[in-house]
Amino acid sequence: MLFFCFPRVIVYKRYLGTSFKSGLKFCGSIPKRTISNSLTVFRKISMAEESPLLVSTIDKIRVITLNRPKKNNAISQQMYLDITKTLNEAASDAGIMMCVVTSNGRFFSSGTDLQNSLDGDLETIIKVANQTLLEFVNAFILFPKLLVAIVNGPAMGISCTILGLFDIVYASEKATFNTPFSKLGLTAEGCSSYTFPRIMGYTKAAEMLYLNRVLTAPEAKSCGLVADVYKEDELDSIIWPRLRQVSSDFNEKSIIYSKQLVRRWDKEDLLAANKAEVERLGERWASEDVMEALIKFMNRKHRSKM
Questions:
Q1: What is the model's pTM?
Q2: In the predicted model, is pLDDT for residue 16 greater than 70?
Q3: C-beta separation of 227 from 148 below 8 A
Q4: Long-range contacts made by residues 228-235, C-beta under 8 angstroms, separation at least 24?
Q5: 49 and 31 in contact (C-beta within 8 Å)?
Q6: Which residues pair with 63 in a beta bridge?
Q7: Shortest CA distance to 52 belongs to which of 24, 26, 81, 25?
């Protein structure tokens, strides 16, 4: 789910006054950069030596790797913008036939980084976050080439909901899938209100979207969200050789044109679903109950680290 990254001063003063603990620390260090020897670095999104997002190319495959293992690969506002830009660039790059999204560390992603902040008044922040989410999800909807996710661990919130927009999802046996909207007073996003019922059936989607049901990797496979499940070491030994073979031996135009035929019937509906979800989330984020739930969430995280 996309958590709008409210500046601390707005949230705290609105609900807690000025007596909130000043010792609460939000910014962790970014983990050291790691990248497989089989990949050649195409471009670093961040100019920093240690990047939370790695973009690389192997054969005709553009690889986006979330690289914040110490933060469970939580996605910052800047990462949203950079992933969107990377997808749009890969879409227009004639040398790329496939984009793979994966991550380093124990988590695929814990969702949006609640501890990341934006500057400005509440209305402006919601507007900016809405537009960021809209463009982020649209980049997945409109991506014309093969889109593959390799889910190495728990996928939560937005990192789970966007999986319905991928062409193929492979998962580690340690992966889980969770959309904890109701606990925070939020609503579906990532087009999950459209894709999940169509992929897994209404009742299973309802369990996930309404009741925060956590799916295991085998359960996600059985309901169609995941194509196949592998042992952790097999993600490298089986999946990557297969994808490289596709990029070198398969006809690129055949895949792209087939995807156009498959997706054309849903594209406008997906764009409309994304717009509706973003608008509803904007309304929810402006509500008192969501702000209160956010404070409780932050307090729980703080206590768990004490």
A1: 0.82
A2: no
A3: no
A4: 228/170, 228/171, 229/170, 229/171, 229/172, 229/173, 229/175, 230/170, 230/171, 230/172, 230/173, 231/172, 231/173, 232/152, 232/172, 232/173, 232/174, 235/150, 235/152, 235/170, 235/172
A5: no
A6: 56, 100
A7: 81
